[in-house]
Amino acid sequence: MHSSVTTTLLSLFFILCFNGPTMVDSQDAFKLPSPLPKWPHGGGFASGTIDLGGLQVSHVTTLNKIWVTNEGGPDNLGVTFYDPIAIPQGFSSLGSYVQPNNIPLCGHILVGKDISNGSSKPTLKLPIDYTLLWSSESLDITKGGEGYIWLPNAPDGYKAVGYIVTGSPVKPPLDKVSCVRADLTDTTNSTTILENEKDLYLNRLNAYRSVGGFLVGNGNVVNLKGSLANSMPNLNQIKALIQTYSPVIYFHPDEQYLPSSVDWFFQNGALLYHKGDESKPNRVDTNGLNLPQGGSNDDTYWLDLPLDGSSKDRVKKGDLQEACAYFHVKPMSGGLFTDIAVWVFYPFNGGSRAKVKFVNLSLGKLGEHVGDWEHVTLRISNINGELNSVFFSQHSWGKWVSASALEYHTGNKPVVYASLHGHASYPKPGCVLLGSGGSDVGVRDDTAKSDKMMDTGVRAVVIAAEYLAEKVVVEPPWLNYERKWGPKIDYDVDKEVKKLKSVMIWKLKKAFERLVESVPREMLGEDGPTGPKVKNNWSGDEDV
Fold this sequence. Notes:
This protein is mainly beta. The chain has 2 domains: about 5-230, no CATH class; about 235-260 and about 325-475 and about 490-535, no CATH class. Helix content is about 10%, strand content about 30%. The protein is built from 6 helices and 37 strands. Strands 29-28-27-24-23-35 form a 6-stranded mixed sheet, with helices on one face. Strands 2-3-8-6 form a 4-stranded antiparallel sheet, with no helix packed on it. A hairpin with a 7-residue loop joins strand 20 and strand 21. The radius of gyration is 25 Å and the shape is globular. Mean pLDDT is about 85; it is low at about 1-25 and about 190-220.
């Protein structure tokens, strides 16, 4: 094998979809805590198949183990590779499936069927050959035999959307997999690079969830795409999905700054400022009717708390009893999935806290700002309406977690833990240290269960679903306010840091300096955020 191919494969990921019970070992297979409800009728959502425009796709959840490693991957427990069995008549596999061994079996394989009615360009064609991209023969790890990774060579005008894995160096038969007509695929660029060969075993498997996609080196992720009208949920189905999967958020027992509804924030004295006329702020109308619409975040408008001291302190704390969650529904992976972003508004974000060796300290007003928009995103299969994974937003980053690795509150409602003061979202309680200071130096994100909690399905508000017909979902005026939800207050971060260092011994000072240098500057400054519609993930994927 050429060394360039071997080097490229150091950054190989399989990107096949999660979830759906696997029947390889029924004792280990993951199932959601409660049976799926009977979804409201209408369209092709959750019908078992999706028509992507002459290409019908479905899931196969009966899998056959092909090859296993016992090292590498998440928690260094290895990964297992599978092929589908019991493929429905007329359907063809689109690739092999792989998942890490640190979670229960939770996989399915996408299969496709050409229903283009004898078109001169069918939606599926067999590959013309295979290229062996990688084998485990020279890899010195604990493994169950040898594994071989093959790329189907697609005919002109077609693309392979998955690799084939075998336990033998013999080429797979040509009819083992089908390639998809190129116009039914979509390509996403990626620049992810892995550092060592063990990373071949999917240390970031959850970072890629596209059905049948793959990534080689600095290559591309290939996804399927199709007609959204055939697969996306209607409004009644959206409401049923929200009631089934709406997350329950637990707040830290010491949390002072809780969420509220946007209307409550406006009704309790939120002010709109205009640059050049700062001495005469306007009180925001109910529902934000007097907020400037559209435009851009040009620092000419911003919101702030009431001027009155007691009102300001009260509004800072939010009102959990009146809090609403705001739901944005959008297609993903060409209509194979529905993403439901669940947005929560906090009137105030508290100051940061840090751990420096054996000392825990408050960072004062570092990290404080008015207005805080946080979210998690539910990814739901349009084939059967099953929860696939959840994205947990954490400051300027986040991570996807498979449905099999979530904690559930009641039924199929996943649990979210909001960090103290900063409100970042986590799937499990505990303390996460941010920055590159190691295991004992970092900005603290503390989460814990308490009696302060919010079921986001209560008082749920659907604020946008652009794929539906006009006016099916009416966007509130505040959603199209694209300026800041809090003022930008310029103060000397270095001066604040120096003040904190003045009470530290020398060794702690050096560690604290390294921490401050490693944390994004926006985590230390005081600057109000923009609203949900201005975020990069509003119309696209969460981490692409």
